[in-house]
Design a protein that fits this description.
The structure holds two protein chains of two kinds. Chain A is α/β, with parallel strands linked by helices. In chain A, about 25% of the residues lie in helices and about 20% in strands. In chain A, a hairpin with a 2-residue loop joins β8 and β9. Chain B is mainly α. Chain B is built from 14 helices and no strands. Classes of the chains: A alpha/beta, B mainly alpha. The structure holds flavin-adenine dinucleotide and iron/sulfur cluster (2 copies).
């Protein structure tokens, strides 16, 4: 890269290269602004966590593109309240929800293609619009659109400092090609995601257990800009000690394992810890409603590891896994294969089996087939594990994102204690904590990024024009 | 060798099956979600369903340098290529022409020599049109076996391929479904008409689909023209030469134009596309095959244009040389893909119904 391009002159510099950044850059460029995108990842890994996504959640009054039926504002908001247990900023949340409807045609007009709900995810066909080819295809489409609009993109460009004087951004500092550069612009949009791939920060928040966490998405979201802004007095939202974590295949790579490492077997298994003991009701609710708590459950176990044990009756009841499971003809052997005390595991299984009752088993609904007399019951889908071969999956916590973020206004402006910064906007994961204070609603991350990315782009362009 | 290719494709197939983000691109993904485990035959079947549109490469979050190292279009292309070679008969000819453009060119030269020789040797005392240069009997005794032997070879190959991928009893509905998909090159439309990711990396384009369509219909028209000529000769006793407003010419001229333009275009596209997303080892052989096919069309047109001039004998030898070599090499070049693809579409209809 020729470092002269960094000199500009630039109207707007966008920090980050994921969905929120691209929506902002495209919107401002369409308003005639000269826009520079600084993406810390190399080109092959551009697009942050957005490249791992599959859909976004979209309000709609009637059938819209691939979405069936209707999904109104109140139902959407109720769904959000349910998962966040009220930890949300209602005006911002409603703004995101209401704006999501016009996002879909906007996305299509800017190159995104949708496809019907993927096989195995029919339950989402009303609420979530799936991207053809997934998030990376979406990101590619946006990069092409941005390029056609004259936006300049610099890869391998990590922003280290965003300089604020008084209530104004003046310039920023970035490492580009191993050298530090000072880059000036009239306005800045911050869209650099959360800090979930900063293991040091996670360890500070979570303690040493965080060393055993796997990060489901990009290794480039280290929160450097978030940290820098907080240090300069910007207001924060969201719990600094929480992250969204799900239980994923323990053999997944440390970073970027993405969607394929998820495991949907828990409701049909028993899950034990390192000591071959069960620790939670595996059948509490249908999996889409429970999968998000299992990350934390496993994180709380010794060595942050769990083992799902299942028999051949149930092995075909869930989406295929990316790595083949361990497999053995006896429970003892399976335990030994997985590094557990096989005799103890067999005892746990047989105690569980004795507590199972006969009754109707129904894999896709709460069937009430519960154990009897166990201190730790399984309240649905409790069938004895008695049909070899037996299978086992190791589970580890996989971090999706962190909740701590920058506080923003309805115009996506970043705030300090003394009011909004005049030329700094934020969009996407870096400000999502306002709306998603806890829990997660599938597809809402991309909605927040698209809605606030477009708002930030529009506001920043209006400011510089 | 081939088991490594199949294992690699199986590894990637299993990752895709846990992901499914590419489901809407083509029929490969809906087909793979039918299974959790994949036999060798399943993998070969999937490979022959793939059109190498590359949509699933450019939108994959797991391509190198990611440790999952996905390159699904290439993995399937390798298995597919290998399946054509494994089922080819006779085996000693299986690989050479796929891999080596030079080998194709060498056979072509031999073809020219043979034709020039025949023109020298079998020049009749009288005759009209082309038969003034090469006696009808000589032409038939050369081209009849040159057409039937490759056909036999293709049938033998397809039979064994059919068994490998688990074909069952054919019903009319299977053929109809397969025929419709093939006629529209449905799978090259990218699932939504946006086309493939061939010559502009992650930007979609329909150029490849249109050019391939031109080649396919151009070839079929030329073939129909030849068949029409044959019928007119034997059934209606109307031997060549034919005027512009005769069936062979009305079919053959547009066919030749489509075939030539399509082949030039496809060759040019191929130079723009990333070879590492296909079966890289056969790049040269594929280029030679495109030249052979396009050359057949172009020399046919040239021959027609030269009617009545002194160039006719030379062009006749060159054109017939192209036609001869095209047919002889048919089971051992890229041309075979059309046959395998069609059979695969039939079996896919069967598996979907099952
Ligand atoms: C496996 C997985 C699947 C998911 N699936 C879905 C889904 O289906 N639907 C959904 O709505 N949400 C999903 N999410 C959540 C979703 O990914 C996020 O909510 C969304 O991508 C956030 O977009 P963003 O643009 O804010 O951040 P990102 O897309 O993460 O982009 C941040 C960008 O900033 C860059 N960056 C970071 N630091 C710097 C710096 N200092 N300087 C310059 N650049 C920097 C990064 O390289 C990256 O390009 C999923 C998350 C994961 C991990
Ligand atoms: S090619 Fe990649 S993105 Fe597409 S289905 Fe396979 S793993 Fe998923
Ligand atoms: S290359 Fe195209 S046709 Fe082949 S599997 Fe991928 S998306 Fe399907």
């Amino acid at each position: 890269m020729n470092s002269d391009v960094l000199k500009g002159p630039w109207d707007i510099v966008v920090v980050g290269g994921g969905n929120a950044a691209l929506c902002a850059a495209i919107t401002s460029a369409e308003e005639g602004a000269r826009v520079l995108i600084l993406e810390s990842a190399p080109k092959t890994y551009r697009g942050g966590n957005s490249r791992h996504t599959r859909n976004f959640r979209c309000m709609h009054e009637g059938p819209l593109s691939v979405l069936t039926d209707s999904y109104g504002e109140d139902e959407y908001f109720d769904d959000l309240m349910l998962v966040t247990k009220g930890k949300t900023d209602e005006p911002l949340a409603r703004l995101a929800i209401r704006s999501s409807e016009e996002c879909l045609p906007w996305m299509e007009a800017h190159g995104v293609r949708f496809q019907p709900s993927l096989s195995g995810t029919l339950s989402l066909s009303r609420t979530n619009a799936f991207f053809l080819g997934g998030g990376k295809a979406l990101v590619n489409a946006y990069y092409n659109t941005a390029e056609d609009l004259g936006v300049t993109v610099v890869y391998d460009a990590e922003v280290t400092h965003v300089h604020i004087e008084g209530d104004r951004f003046t310039h920023l500092e970035a490492q580009v090609g191993g050298k530090s550069h000072r880059i000036e612009a009239k306005a800045v949009v911050l869209a650099s995601g959360g800090f979930q791939s900063n293991l040091e920060w996670l360890t500070r928040a979570w303690g040493p257990a965080a060393a055993n966490f796997l990060i489901r998405g990009t290794p480039y979201n280290k929160g450097a800009v978030l940290r820098d802004m907080l240090d300069q007095g910007c207001e924060s939202v969201g719990d600094p000690t929480q992250c969204h974590a799900v239980a994923i295949d323990g053999r997944a790579p440390k970073f970027d394992g993405g969607i394929v490492t998820r495991l949907d077997c828990v409701p049909f298994s028993i899950v034990v810890n390192r000591d071959a003991e069960r620790f939670y009701d595996e059948g509490e609710d249908v999996w889409p409603k429970r999968y998000a708590i299992w990350g934390r459950l496993v994180a709380a176990q010794p060595d942050q590891v769990g083992y799902a044990i299942i028999d051949s009756k149930s092995i075909d009841l869930f989406m295929p896994s990316v790595f083949p499971p361990n497999r053995a003809d006896t429970i003892e052997e399976l335990g030994a294969q997985m590094g557990l005390d096989g005799v103890k595991l067999a005892a746990t299984v047989s105690e569980f089996n004795k507590a199972c009752r006969t009754g109707r088993f129904h894999p896709t609904e709460l069937d009430g087939l519960a154990t009897e007399g166990l201190a730790q019951p399984k309240t649905n889908w409790a069938r004895p594990i008695d049909t070899p071969p037996y299978y086992g999956y190791q589970l580890r916590p996989g971090v999706t994102f962190t909740y701590l973020g920058l506080k923003v206004s309805e115009t996506a402006q970043v705030h300090t204690a003394s009011g909004p910064l005049s030329n700094v906007w934020a969009a996407g994961e870096i400000m999502a904590g306002s709306i998603l204070g806890q829990g997660y609603l599938a597809g809402f991350g991309m909605t927040i990024g698209t809605v606030f990315g477009r708002i930030a782009g529009r506001e920043a362009a209006a400011y510089v024009n | 060798m081939s088991i490594d290719l199949i294992n690699e494709a199986r590894r990637q197939t299993e990752i895709c099956n846990a992901c499914r983000y590419c489901e809407g691109f083509c029929s490969v993904f809906p087909a793979l979600t039918r299974n959790k485990m994949f036999t060798d035959g399943d993998i070969t079947h999937l490979a022959n369903l793939c059109h190498n549109c590359r949509g699933c490469y450019y939108s994959c979050q797991y391509t190198a340098p990611h440790e999952f190292d996905l390159n699904f279009p290439a993995a399937l292309a390798e298995v597919r290529q290998d399946s054509w070679e494994r089922h080819a008969w006779p085996q000693p000819l299986a690989r050479r022409f796929h891999e080596s453009g030079v080998a194709v060119a060498a056979v072509l030269i031999v073809g020219f020599v043979v034709l020039f020789g025949m023109l020298q040797t079998f020049r009749p005392a009288s005759g009209e049109g082309f038969y003034a240069y090469l006696a009808h009997g000589a032409m038939v005794s050369l081209f009849l076996p040159a057409f039937l032997l490759p056909l036999l070879s293709v049938i033998i190959g397809l039979r064994s391929y059919w068994q490998e991928i688990g074909g069952t009893r054919i019903r009319w509905s299977h053929i109809k479904g397969a025929g419709l998909a093939a006629a529209r090159l449905k799978n090259l439309d990218g699932g939504q008409g946006q086309g493939c990711n061939f010559e502009h990396e992650d930007r979609y384009s329909n150029t490849r689909r249109w050019l391939h369509q031109a080649v396919m219909y151009g070839f079929l028209l030329c073939f129909a023209a030849t068949s029409a000529g044959t019928v007119m000769h034997y059934v209606f006793d109307m031997p060549a030469p034919y005027g512009l407003f005769s069936l062979p010419k009305l079919l053959g001229v547009p066919g030749g134009v489509l075939l030539t333009v399509g082949c030039v275009g496809l060759a040019w596209l191929k130079t723009k596309a990333d070879p590492s997303l296909g079966a890289a080892r056969v790049w040269g052989g594929e280029m030679a095959f495109i030249a052979l096919l396009g050359g057949t069309g172009a020399t046919g047109l040239a021959l027609y244009a030269a009617t009545g001039t002194a160039l006719v004998p030379v062009l006749l030898a060159v054109h017939l040389g192209f036609v001869l070599v095209f047919f002889l090499l048919l089971p051992f070049t890229k041309m075979i893909h059309g046959f395998f693809r069609f059979v695969t579409l039939i079996v896919e209809e069967q598996k979907r119904g099952a």
